[in-house]
Amino acid sequence: MLDLHKTQYVELERLLRAGVQTFLLVGDYGVGKKTLVRRVLSASFADYLVTEVPKFTIDIARQMKATTLRRSAQTRVYLIDGDEATVQAYNAVLKLFEEPPPATVFFVCSSTHPLQTIVSRCNNVRIPPLSSSELAEVLSFKGMSSSVSSTVISYANGSISQAFRVYEKFEEKRRLVPFIKALKDRDLPFVLAQARVITREEISLLLELVDDVLLARYGLVSPELATLVKATPDFLLKMKEALLGGNNPTINWLRAYFETGDKQ
After folding, report:
1. Measured in whole angstroms, how far is the alpha carbon of residue 246 from the centre of its chain?
2. Which of 4, 49, 81, 234 has the fewest CB atoms below 10 angstroms from its CB?
């Protein structure tokens, strides 16, 4: 398992050893809060049961209160998504958080601070975004090449989830590169075949890809995709104008484009 958020790991482990039972972990979405909790738990308890609470409603809060009244041989751990919690649910567990039962630990993981009444009843630990080196370690562990991960990291803001969203969009755009090359080279059969199946989402991606390439030429975004699309700015601007010329590019405008003979 990767060794991330070392400072916060040590702090959480220390607090658990000291008998602390309620925690609030605040950090941006996707930075690895829940992953960190699971790492700490595996090092702190020999026998424990984690209950994930993805949506913390008043009904779930009532069930939680009833369950914690029963004795358990295991340490019960509740991992609550604070971004999907209601005010009513929080209010229902104020007493529970203030005086937690034996062998019960609560972790609230949130991207923002919840109610002050919850904040004051928990040990607050800030989880910062991952550093570039930490994120590179995660992406390498997941099998991403260093050349691609360097581009992804620059847009991920220290978030693992954001990194993979960026990567997915990067790959979607890369699959459209042959389409642009075919336009540039006027490979009419290829482009017409692609135009029959092009989707509205792919049109949006094409526009983004054109912007990426143009901005990369001015050093404003990573050049990773720009190196794949060998086209002049004038050509790309004309292509963007064509893409925006109607609700959807069709075989008709593509055919008209090729018939102009104005190759860049």
Report:
1. 33
2. 234
